[in-house]
Design brief:
By secondary structure, this protein is an alpha+beta fold. It contains 4 helices and 7 strands. It is about 25% helix and about 45% strand. It has a 7-stranded antiparallel sheet with strand order 1-7-6-5-4-3-2. The protein starts with a strand and ends in a 6-residue tail after the last helix.
């Protein structure tokens, strides 16, 4: 199992960060490898929400489906992959800090097949991408680009 964490402080209230990050359609705005998101359930995000994402990674397109397994408004949200090339999931943690938000992203993946053979390289690239995404999220939200 490969696990890593990204943490960033965003100069926006926790409610703004939480609502932006927990809207699946926003993933293409701040997750650099996500090129498409298709909701599989209707309604507001919550436990049981399902979606499919297409990601461009290492020059290839990969499709993942996931389900929200934990949803505590303005505190945390967690997903598990239900299909895709790499089993695993992730947790987003939101902590208020005097009008700002500490955002923590914990990723867990179990490499197999092609990815198992190249796990050390793959893990390093995935960790780098998650770190980049955290910085991109911070820049996007602090610039006020989270509004429609």
């Amino acid at each position: 199992m490969t696990s890593f964490t990204c943490e960033v402080t965003i100069d926006r209230p926790v409610e703004a960060v939480y609502s932006f990050v927990n809207e699946p359609s926003n993933n293409v705005k701040w997750q650099t490898s996500t090129v498409e998101v298709s909701p599989l359930t209707e309604g507001p995000p919550g436990v049981g929400t399902k979606a499919t994402e297409v990601r461009q990674f290492l020059g290839r397109r990969f499709e993942w489906s996931y389900e929200v397994i934990e949803h505590v408004p303005n505190e945390r949200s967690a997903v598990r992959f239900t299909s895709g090339p790499i089993p695993g999931g992730g947790t987003w943690i939101f902590e208020p800090l005097d009008g700002r938000t500490r955002f923590t992203w914990v990723v867990n993946m179990e490499a197999s097949g092609f990815f198992k053979l190249a796990e050390p390289v793959f893990a390093r690239l995935a960790r780098r991408e998650v770190q980049s995404n955290c910085g991109h999220l911070k820049d996007l939200l602090e610039a006020g680009l989270d509004s429609p």
